[in-house]
Design a protein that fits this description.
251 residues; three-stranded mixed beta sheet; 11 helices
Length: 251
């Protein structure tokens, strides 16, 4: 799936200049056109009038992007004075947001066309999401499997780009740590028992008939926020860098 997002027309300049609005538009539309997702994206709007860096509306099928805030946020998170590396970091930061939203476009498509259990499960989440208050959504944001998939996939893409094109170990370590943190987020340890994001959503946000327990490996269970034994969670936590490195090499 990651190869969908690796586009030479935007990546060729990733080390030289910060992506322009036109670069961003071209990148998104190239993917949307190639995979015939035009019914699921009607418009790209650059605006400062959103709380997020970018936001895809599943119902309206519009993508809003706060370009200036993306750049400001990247600069605030960088924390160094190397101007050349700041350009690369900013572009990787932007790419993380773009891939995240494109994954949502794909999820909207799959929700209407796929019969795979994971896509049916996410469709239920997306329908529920449209009815939530902002407070409730913000509280459980990193527990929804469709958001976790978007977060994790975007960081997987960035790690792949760094490993294959940029070859900067410090930047790789930064985004790898971000990915590890994202995979572990949302889980709660209570009385020596691990409570999964999926369980939290089922209990507090939406009631799902039956229990969806896919036969995934440890990494995939964490990616989607599904149940797993505490020892598996702890094993990943103690070996996250090694596990992510191996996965990046085999993309």
């Amino acid at each position: 799936m990651l190869s969908i997002f690796v586009r030479n027309n935007i990546l060729k300049n990733i080390e030289h200049q910060i992506f322009t609005k036109k670069d961003i538009e071209n990148y998104i539309w190239e993917i949307v056109n190639e995979f015939e997702l035009n019914d699921y994206l009607k418009d790209i709007i650059f605006t400062n009038d959103i709380e997020h860096l970018a936001f895809y509306h599943f119902g309206e099928r519009t993508l809003k992007i706060n370009y200036e805030e993306m750049i400001n946020d990247a600069e605030n998170n960088y924390g160094k004075e190397d101007k050349h590396e700041l350009v690369i970091f900013t572009n990787l930061y932007i790419l993380t947001s773009l891939v995240h939203e494109i994954v949502h476009i794909l999820q909207n498509y799959y929700a209407r066309t796929s019969r795979k259990p994971i896509r049916i499960y996410m469709k239920t989440e997306i329908l529920c999401f449209s009815t939530l208050t902002k407070e409730l959504y913000d509280k459980y944001y990193d527990c929804f499997s469709f958001e976790r998939e978007a977060i994790v996939t975007s960081l997987e893409v960035v790690l792949y780009v760094i490993k294959t094109k940029i070859k900067n170990e410090e930047l790789y370590g930064y985004f790898r740590d971000w990915l590890a943190e994202s995979l572990l987020s949302g889980y709660i340890i209570k009385h020596k028992k691990l409570i999964s994001p999926a369980h939290i959503i089922s209990k507090n946000v939406m009631k799902i008939s039956g229990s969806y327990k896919p036969k995934y490996n440890i990494y995939s269970k964490l990616k989607y926020g599904f149940d797993l034994p505490y020892w598996q969670y702890n094993y990943f936590k103690n070996n996250a860098a090694t596990i992510i490195n191996k996965k990046t090499l085999h993309q």
